[in-house]
Amino acid sequence: MVMVKVNKSKKQSISEKRKIKAVLSAGRVTSNTSDAFQMHESGRFGEKVEGKIQYSLVEALYLMNKDRLEVLQKKKKIKSEKFIELACEKESNFMAKYPVFRDLRDRGYIVKTALKFGADFRVYNKGVKPGEDHAKWIVFPVYESSVMTWHDFAAKNRVAHSTKKNLLIAIVDDEGDVTYYECRWIRP
To answer: ∠173-122-40 over CA atoms, to 5°?
Structure first.
């Protein structure tokens, strides 16, 4: 008989501590590791696409900064500075999107892309998983120095209303802090 001592005081298993290896190719970050699928199920990171987990660029950077994801390009590890440079080339407004994504995820919300809704993100209420219920908000990150016309604002509000979601305007200041303004239609 072999006895194995189990240390129950550890909060994370070894598999939770391992970095997920992912590949950046054609502007997409993907992984087919079992850890990637586990993290998708537990934390709703990434989307299942063609037998792999595909991460948005902001999601990949977030996981890299949390030391949970290692991104490779042509079999070489990419540092976060180089990844940011590549992401900024691929996505306009990337540096306004990332602080918003980070802030919302750190607060416990599930954040997904919302391109099909004409927005940057869709955000699920705490405790709600995509597929179980609908997102509550669509989010448009903007820099505080940006100019938004009433026409732009009305268009964003119409998108939110037509998708039955509340509109969040996320204003990012020069320090990377985010202030949210929620806009809803009301009937007088």
So the answer is: 110
130 and 144 together in one domain = yes
Q: Which of 77, 86, 69, 81 is nearest to 26 (CA)?
A: 86
Higher pLDDT, 26 or 141: 141
Full domain range(s) for residue 132: 92-188
List, by residue number, the catalytic residues.
Answer: 124, 134, 165
How do residues 124-147 score in pLDDT, each as one tens digit? 988 888 888 999 999 999 999 999
| Cα–Cα distance for residue pair 145/35, rounded to 1 Å | 40
Instruction: Answer positive or negative: Cα dihedral of 134, 163, 27, 80.
Output: negative
Looking at the structure, tell me whether residues 75 and 127 fall in a common domain: no
CATH code of the domain in which 25 resides: 3.40.1170.20
pLDDT confidence of residue 17: 62
Q: Is residue 11 part of a domain?
A: no
